[in-house]
Structures are given as structure tokens and as C-alpha cells.
Amino acid sequence: MEHNKTSAAISPTKRVRCIVKLGGAAITCKIKLETIDEENLKEVSSQLRQAFVLDSTSANVLGMDWSKRPGQSEVPSIINDFSDQPVADSESFIVVHGAGSFGHFQSSKSGVHKGGLSRPLVKAGFVATRISVTSLNLEIVRALAREGIPSIGMSPFSCGWSTRQRNMTEADISMVIKAIDTGFVPVMHGDAVLDALQECTILSGDVIIRHLVHFFLRGPPVEPAAVLIREIAVREDGSWSVVKPKLEDTIEFTVAAHDTTGGMVTKITEAAMIAKLVIDVYITKAGTDHSVKALSWNLERWHT
Amino acid sequence: MEHNKTSAAISPTKRVRCIVKLGGAAITCKIKLETIDEENLKEVSSQLRQAFVLDSTSANVLGMDWSKRPGQSEVPSIINDFSDQPVADSESFIVVHGAGSFGHFQSSKSGVHKGGLSRPLVKAGFVATRISVTSLNLEIVRALAREGIPSIGMSPFSCGWSTRQRNMTEADISMVIKAIDTGFVPVMHGDAVLDALQECTILSGDVIIRHLVHFFLRGPPVEPAAVLIREIAVREDGSWSVVKPKLEDTIEFTVAAHDTTGGMVTKITEAAMIAKLVIDVYITKAGTDHSVKALSWNLERWHT
């Protein structure tokens, strides 16, 4: 992986506490086309507020989504409450979300991940995929903003991120750093991007996370292996295999036909790459007690 | 204005025929909060298709917005038509749109244009403004895509554009160039951005256009002055005044209280700066015969 010079030269002044991946299946109804799991998204956003916005209670949330609500012509009255409020600060974190029932259909139907922009179907699919994933991104940014999290949507494509034969080559993170340093929470997502060899492809949220981890997270040099890492062996070349529990048969990972980002195999591969850097990786179901626990555990270790 | 090194080093391989500004008042109901003028937006998008997509008729439009339509659970059936289609190409252009009834309320209420991100109201307003303008951007991208225009939303903030005391300093257009070179139509918009001195401000669509003009348009070296330019005198320092028709009194431009981008004064100032480069500037009402005429005139001159 090559890094853009701009990125390498800039260091964030604020320390990023963690990178939160919101799985597509957790925030959308994965089998129902372009449908957000509103209840789960609200719960996840609330949990993130509790974990990261200091002195936050559900009673003193100052919403930052001032858009018109459906069926109303007026803006939310919450804006008038701001004048009395002290400065509320939040700890630095980054959100990366998957696509769930957004984007996958458009990209798989057109074969955007395989490249070839001169084909009308691929070109149209590229446009359609970006429309779908950016509309999901907007809704997630809004859900977080409603919980008082200063979220900022940032599309990998617009940030200038691109690949070469599906491997990330250009990923200037200077704007991500600036957003964090000024107190915002970047919200990134899997996206259709340009590829130097095959013209275009799909950049998955998991690959984005691995890239961000390199820049933002510093793992402790010697640390007992985390729970999930004890079960997977990662070889020098980045390949991995499950070693615990011991299994008689080989494991088979199924990938849904419409999933153009590789499903669980990609997720575990990327998680393994991060684990190699001695950085904690938790895979939990979003919006549950497990995710709260994972966030708290991270918080405890952060402060010790 | 300083230019980022990356931008200066890259030249587009495709020639950009024109930069189209869609005024906020033309595509939204300016007095009705966050309401799109659907009819006008559809008409404008159709006109842009006719002007730029080669061999385009209303009968053979291949829509590129494959999102679920309201009240439907299925995607549009149009996708199945692509396999039979020859490669349709479109001439290169860029769309920049204003905010209209999107964003202005959020930015003026919080004073984002005046800066000061340490104030909770400004910080929340920054988030709220970006949510509002990016949701408008998404709808415009979708409207253009439905007309078969390969539109790609690109937010100035995400592109890393920023200002210093409200003057543009960093505006890396390498991604805009890449989008054009690969056959897409970048759709940019006025946005809340970071400012090196006052922490944040609003970057108007008109300022964005002037910046893009410097890179993408090459005016003929000697050319009779365009209609609008005959009426305005532009001085060396960039200031301007109306000289034709001759007026007894000074002209007063009114700016709506909620308009944080400067209204017509900014528009004319930016237009004058572009005119200084001997580049045609047409200010017409979008979606009318006048705009068709302006686009055709541009087309004729383009081909001669």
C-alpha cells in the first residue's frame, strides 16, 4: 500500500480513540432494498453519544440535524436552546459504515467491482451505486447529528481515494485529520471509486478501516492477545486460518450473490491485518449490550 | 489565490465545454424551507441532457438513478435495457448549484459564515448546514442521473477545499479532473468549509465557479465583449461598477437576511472576475428558452 505524501506529512493533533464500524446488516434491513433499520440506527447513535460525548444524558442532547421533518414546514425548535449551553466536547472517533441493502444491488447488477467504465451498464451502475451509498451515508450522518454528535459525511470518492487493481493506492487522509482536529466526527462509507488498472471498483468499508487504522491508532507494543485474535492465525503474507476452536472440517464462508465487497471473509481478513498491528478489534452486533461493553472496555483501556 | 501543487501539476485530458451554475432560486422554492422545485429541476435536467448527451432524445434516455422510488419495493426496470445499448457519450461539463432554501437557514441562524467553531451553536450549525446542502446535492445528482447524465456529487468540504479569511486557499481539483477524464459530470455545491483564520465559513457556489474557470476554461484571446460585460466596468483590483445603461442614481442590491453567500452582488462580482478572463458568462433563468439559447450559443461557438 502506497501512501500519498500529503497524508504522510500531516499528523493529527487530536488522538483518535477508536474507529467504529457500523455493519450494513446492523443499520439497514439487509433483505429489503434500500431500507434503513430506523430503530437500530437510533439505538446505535444513542450508544455512540453515551460513549463519546462527554457529560451526555438523553435529557441534554442538542440535535445538530436541523432539517425539516416529514410533514412539517418548520425547522426543529431545538436551535433556540443552544445559546444557554456550555461547550460540550466529544472524544475523537471515526465512523465507517457498510452498505447493507444500499449500493450492493446497483454494483452487483452492473459489475462495478469488476471495472470497465466504457460499458454503459458499468458507468450507469457506478453513478447508481454512488447515489445509493451516499443517500445511506446522509441518513446515518443525520441520525448521529440528532444525538448531538458533530458528524460530517465524507465520501472516499470525493476525498480522492482510488485503487490500482482493487488495492488502495491513493488515500489522502489530510481532510479526515482536519475534520478530527476541528472537533468533527468523520462518517465514511464503502464507495464506488476509480481504479488505475480496471477503471473502477468498489472500495469496501473494511478496507477503509484498515487504512485509517494505520494512521490513527497506535496499539500498545506488548499486549496479551485479544479474544478474537487467539482464534485466528495470521501468516506473514497476510493470510489467516482459524486455529481455535479446533475444527474437524474446513470452514466455509458463504457470500451473498449481491455482496460485492466479499462478505465475512473480507471482514475477517481486514480484521486480521489490523490485529497484526496489536490493535484491539471487536466484532459485535451493533445496538446491543455487547457493543456497549466493547465501547466501555475500549474506554477503560483508553484512560489507563 | 494560492493553488495546491497537486492541482497545478495535473491537466485534464478532456476539454470542459462549460460550467453550468444552477441558481438556488431556480431549483428550489426559495421561500419554502428545504423544498425542491421538482418541475423546474426536471426541466433543467432534461435541457442539460439535450445539450450535452450526444444523440439524446427523450425516448432513449437510460436512467442512472436506480434507487427505490417512494411507495415501491422494487428497483426501476430500466436496468434491463442497458445490455442492448451502444456506448452513449456526453460532452464534458461541470454543474455547480446554489443552496436556495437549503442550508441558508441553518448557516444564518448559527453564523457559520462568521466562524468560531468553539461555540456550540456554530459547530452544530456547521453540521446542520452540511446535512442540508448535501441532501439538496443528492437530489440534483439523482435528477440529472434520471436523465442519463453520469452525474457524481462532490462536496467541496470532502474534496479538501478550505479558505483563509473567507478567501479560497486550498482547492485541490485533481479529483474533479479525474472525474471528468473518466466521463463523469461533477456536481458541486456551496458548502460549509474550514477556514484557516476564522475556523469555518461558507464557500459559495459562485466562488467555486470562478475557481473552476481558472483551471478548465480557456477563453479566446481576442473576442468582442459579451452582452453582459458591456454593462459592467471591472477595475484592475477586481472591483466593478455598472456603466451601461447609464443611471442617475447608484444601484442598490438587496441581500436577503438569510442569504449568507452575498446574493446578487457576489454573483456579479464573481461573474466579472470570470469575464476578465475573456470567458463568456451568461446569466439566465434556468429551465427557460433563454437557458436553452445560452447553451446552444455556447455549443455553436464550441464547434467553430
From TrEMBL, chains A, B:
Which reaction is recorded as catalysed by this protein? isopentenyl phosphate + ATP = isopentenyl diphosphate + ADP
- What cellular component GO annotations does this protein have? cytosol
Site residues by UniProt (Transition state stabilizer): 30
Pfam families documented for this protein? AA_kinase
Q: Where, by residue number, does ATP bind? A: 100, 205, 263, 267
Sorted keywords for this record are: ATP-binding, Isoprene biosynthesis, Kinase, Nucleotide-binding, Transferase
Which top EC class is named for this enzyme in its record? transferase
UniProt superkingdom: Eukaryota
> Which parts of the sequence bind substrate?
99, 104
Q: Which residues form the Aspartate/glutamate/uridylate kinase domain?
A: 17-212
The protein's matches in Gene3D superfamilies, at most eight in alphabetical order, are given as: Acetylglutamate kinase-like
- Name used for this protein in its record: Isopentenyl phosphate kinase
Which source organism?
Answer: Anisodus acutangulus
